[in-house]
Records
---
Amino acid sequence: MELYNLTGTLEFLLLGLSEDPEMQPILFVLFLLIYLFTVLGNVLIISAISSDSHLHSPMYFFLYHLSLSDMGFSSTTIPKMLINLQTYKKSITYVACLSQVSFFFLFGSMDSLLLTVMAYDRWAAICHPLHYQVFLNPCLCRCLVIVSFFFSLIDSQVHYLMVSQLKFCTNLEIPHFFCDVTELLKLACTDTTISKIVIFLASIIIGFLPASGILYSYYKIISSIVRVTSSSGKYKAFSTCGSHLSVVCLFYGTGIGVYLSSSISSSSKQSVVASVMYTMIVPMMNPFIYSLRNKDIKRALQKIFTQITHLTVKSINV
């Protein structure tokens, strides 16, 4: 088969979720609402943490950056898909595809590592409350976020370089709504053995190791909580990590679902549906989980809404 070497003019076709023209407007409205809720929810979380001095603690410092990462993660895939649905144009350039791969792994890896750092924060708060400020001083918190970004950037660039080395044939149709690396490997005409090994190793470093760290942290947390004698003390300890545990289950649960659907099933549609949960629903749900289960966040949001109401009333009276 003929190889494409002119990467500047190379374009892929993103087949998306459905090729039915009648479904395009429905999907456009649905995913537009999901994207707006994602951005609005995360912006509110960021605004609440920035404006309330009571939320200037390590846990909310990490949540602040998780919200930024979630917005970046959603913005990597959804806007392009919305444009394709609205214009009925399914093409994406080679350069845009590489950029999408790079940012997808940058923000996806950042989410995984930040959730691990937040698990460490909960372990320090529950198992070593007297040394909490020592274990998580402001300098260490900043360093943890910087290190998380550094490793995410490395993972992103590894995938970027790997995809940039692939040679593609005349079949350039991707049965997905974004440039999924697994589908790109299927389209490649060159040997992809080394690329698959690289993906496997990167998955262990960015996926398995952080997940193991989270499991170990919660093993220590549960062991510590079990030793608490009062039921109110147990409830208070569990409530402090309930939101984080919910987000972890949602993030890794959908991530495992994407992996299993692409590995076990030969149908690309099942993988696409699982990817919708992972790339769209999870970033949208995170702000709601933290705001609904956290009194401090709800109090800060109420202050913001009150200030907005007062400013609106003043502007109307003027």
---
Amino acid sequence: MLPAVVKLCCGISYPHLRSTAGLQRTAVAVIGQEITHLQGWGQLQHHWRIHADLTCDEPKAEDIKPLSAKDQLFYVQKGQEAMRKALSMLEDKEGWKVEIAESNGDVICSKVMSGARKVFRLEAVLDTSVDELHDLLFVRVEEMHEWNPSIQHIKILKHVGPETIVTHETSAKTAGNLIGQRDFVSVRQSCRQKSIVYLGGAAIQLDSLPPQPGFVRAEDGPACIIIQALDGDTRKSRLTWLLNMDVKGWLPKSIVNQALPQSQLDFTRHLRRRLTVGATPTRQQHPVTTGGTTRKTEAR
């Protein structure tokens, strides 16, 4: 995100959001001014490196296409809009129901939104810093398939700025996958407020990338992840993940609503394994509370 816009996008805190009334016109004006100063891909790329300190591989030269100021503004606005909507969902405390509560403290709640779609909120504490999670989940997003077997690949299609990217993601063909292979084209936004990092995103259409053969084009978002340091311990972070997804296709809602929270548990398990570099995974039984009943699952 462009520097001046960080103050607009991140002038909010979870769980107490500030009013966003009147911000849109101001944001448009500020973003336009910033983009004017950063015209051209070379300047944007230089600015991006300085402020984001990215270590991921840059896209191939033939894949890089300069974005006009209008296009840059469009993607930044889409990312900010997704962030605001997702945070508003989390701010509304009414209607949340516990779906799964694990013995390690991870909790997934669900809420039925308009149109009868369910969204899912994961709360987990991870043994790592906010910066490390931001690096894994945003800066090095293209490497996610290396530690998350449910992802086949993630490709950054457009680097709009240091805090806004457009990505194409494909899910892996794995045993037991109830939903099947999907692909997603999304705009992703990142912003920081003191010790809190906000990652937001939503589906976006690109004429240059139609649905891929063998995949169903699903739509995610508005969705977000909030990463904040635990009080008094910067080596631990609280992760709040709002999963809001339309998987498309003809699957019954009952199957989708079973698979989505399970995907959150799987993701968190793979993330913890990635954070424990060099550790040998062990299998153990631990109780999980689902819908008021207790069952046992294997941690792999």
